[in-house]
Protein 1
Amino acid sequence: DADVTQTPRNRITKTGKRIMLECSQTKGHDRMYWYRQDPGLGLRLIYYSFDVKDINKGEISDGYSVSRQAQAKFSLSLESAIPNQTALYFCATSDNRQYPFYEQYFGPGTRLTVT
Amino acid sequence: DQQVKQNSPSLSVQEGRISILNCDYTNSMFDYFLWYKKYPAEGPTFLISISSIKDKNEDGRFTVFLNKSAKHLSLHIVPSQPGDSAVYFCAARGQTGANNLFFGTGTRLTVIP
């Protein structure tokens, strides 16, 4: 079984709709991240969380919110989706207590299309 | 502003030859550099890293070189194999303590049998 899972894997939604992307991990890591990948732009950080009580904005947090429901779960919400949020979204985890603590483990991605 | 850049979107190499993927960065405060490999429909997977205090790190067929004065790093794959065909992302870690990674735009490597 995969250590970092994302649901759904693909989603098509309409402008203005609220949508939630979910991430679960079985690695026991304390840190979790949400990235988006756009063609020609690489991966950009949206939000990250050090633990359940700690949420931090990343490079491109506008239009997004997150919830860390448990150490193993980190969800990303688009309150009112817009077409330029069409992208590939990745969840990642890392363990700050174990070398190499900078290594991040990624889920398989969620392809989101906003029409 | 892109702090980590991969100027070659694609690279084709014959099987058995060397693949060289390049990456440039602008922030001199980055302390670790990583290479990730990504296959279609999968998330990126960690490949190899290098600390800013070193200039070379080797792991099997993969070697990463860091030139701090030029703010440049490269990944060498020798010998290249068809299974190495993937998108390779260069990433750099900031020193903020948040463990955030800044990614390049990726280079698609195709190894021709």
Note: Residues 18 and 78 of chain B are 5 Å apart (CA to CA).
Protein 2
Amino acid sequence: KAGVTQTPRYLIKTRGQQVTLSCSPISGHRSVSWYQQTPGQGLQFLFEYFSETQRNKGNFPGRFSGRQFSNSRSEMNVSTLELGDSALYLCASSLEGGSYEKLFFGSGTQLSVL
Amino acid sequence: DAKTTQPPSMDCAEGRAANLPCNHSTISGNEYVYWYRQIHSQGPQYIIHGLKNNETNEMASLIITEDRKSSTLILPHATLRDTAVYYCIVRVVGAGNMLTFGGGTRLMVKP
């Protein structure tokens, strides 16, 4: 069974631009979550989608948004990029998001904002 | 969320058991303890989880104290490839996959 797939693996953007990151969950998984990892703040939860609906949201500005498609694939978008948005963005999936379920992470997208 | 406390770093000799402690004194009765590890620049990897009983799988063992206020992850025979940051997480019921990661423990396995 294929794992969580994130594309692209690396991305370089300049300030003010926007970016879209993609995540394909493990087949059969309906819950997809996004995390941001920076050296200063560590791993922080961005949002979670389940059945195309945002179920939980972390403490990030509105420039960060996401969506989930009917096949459970998810995208996240960051508009008006800032230097501080440089980070590893991780996607994770599980069957339904229950607290007894294993959560599987992808390898991440490394975003550099210049 | 129940907060977890872990030592920032630990060393272990290759071939020896690595015992990584975690304190979660405010855990609620229905909250699971999960352990993940992250090797540099990769996504976190699931290791093991438990509610109140000790658990063992092919990767590790999880020992949870009777009062559930602390736990220990045991890697029975550490190898150099086990060098990573280990995160202890308490999963809140009803919070979906909104996990709160602390700083974790940086385990260095030395030859």
Note: The mean pLDDT of chain B is 93.
Protein 3
Amino acid sequence: DTAVSQTPKYLVTQMGNDKSIKCEQNLGHDTMYWYKQDSKKFLKIMFSYNNKELIINETVPNRFSPKSPDKAHLNLHINSLELGDSAVYFCASSQNHMDTEAFFGQGTRLTVV
Amino acid sequence: DAKTTQPNSMESNEEEPVHLPCNHSTISGTDYIHWYRQLPSQGPEYVIHGLTSNVNNRMASLAIAEDRKSSTLILHRATLRDAAVYYCILTPLDKIIFGKGTRLHILP
């Protein structure tokens, strides 16, 4: 079983559309994250949730909205997609964000055309 | 925010040890030092972490300077599968920040 799974793996969409990326972890972890890796390969945290509550919200446009229906899921909704949103988005989870290893999904490559 | 500095790239021969350095001169007392690596077209993978003492696991060793302002990830016997970008990360109480990482090339 995949520890952290993201769907879809690839997403191609037009500017202005609204899309969602789903993430699920079966590790029983309390903390989940969304990261964005741009074309220059810089990996930046976007959001962090602990027990369904938002604890980190970096400078991200409000078109991006994470939603955590339960501790095992952290979905990412993106409204009014722009060309600059094209990137690889990684979901991750950890028992907590202080001392333990984080497990990453395989990533979702989003291409906005 | 505590930052890390790593060389952009390094090369090593296969089956030889590799020492990947990381500077973190503004580290605070509560920051843990984590190392992750990212193989091509994959998500980051945990390698090792520590606070003050040197650490060993099946993948690597982590040597932490006494003043904690630098650390070194040691791959004891590099293989071609170790070719990846290696990230040195500090985890303060409220933030995880990935630096630019070191791209490690392994020469056969």
Note: Chain B touches chain A through 21 residues (CB under 8 Å).
Protein 4
Amino acid sequence: SQTIHQWPATLVQPVGSPLSLECTVEGTSNPNLYWYRQAAGRGLQLLFYSVGIGQISSEVPQNLSASRPQDRQFILSSKKLLLSDSGFYLCAWSGQVNEKLFFGSGTQLSVL
Amino acid sequence: RKEVEQDPGPFNVPEGATVAFNCTYSNSASQSFFWYRQDCRKEPKLLMSVYSSGNEDGRFTAQLNRASQYISLLIRDSKLSDSATYLCVVTGYSTLTFGKGTMLLVSP
């Protein structure tokens, strides 16, 4: 069966520090991969999605970036965090575009 | 009009009650529809897909009305464990679009 791993579960970072969140999927090949952010009391905002290695689509302009160095690995990065980057970050995968998503357990990021 | 709209609630119901949520969507070309459940500070989890003919899974019934562009979720015999936020999800132009969710609180 397919599983998705995301870490760390919580992270407290100072403003201006770098960020790297990693997500890996097991049990499937060539998944579509997604990064979402959920700010407190708000809905899910799609940040990036990828349909293959090295293929990244960005949904919103921001100081975050994403990379997909391997088929089942998706990384979310920032060179300098802002206060507004605080939120709950979720990685997800699907078998096909516009199919149901399966989420990792999320990372609660607090930028102070 | 927002792509996916839901009443944020909260819906406060006693155990055993029946409760229904609606969700409207703006993209008439949407083909797939889902309900997700999200507990506080947890990831969303797929509750059920919504099919054109309507579908039922135990105490949960989902329906789609394409003409009026809304989907619904009915929960019968509510349990305390049903307390959560329910997210409506609709296929967009290239990715899924999530509603902001409806909060359900079931009390003893």
Note: Chain A touches chain B at residues 34, 42-44, 46, 49, 57, 59, 88, 90, 97-106, 108 (CB under 8 Å).
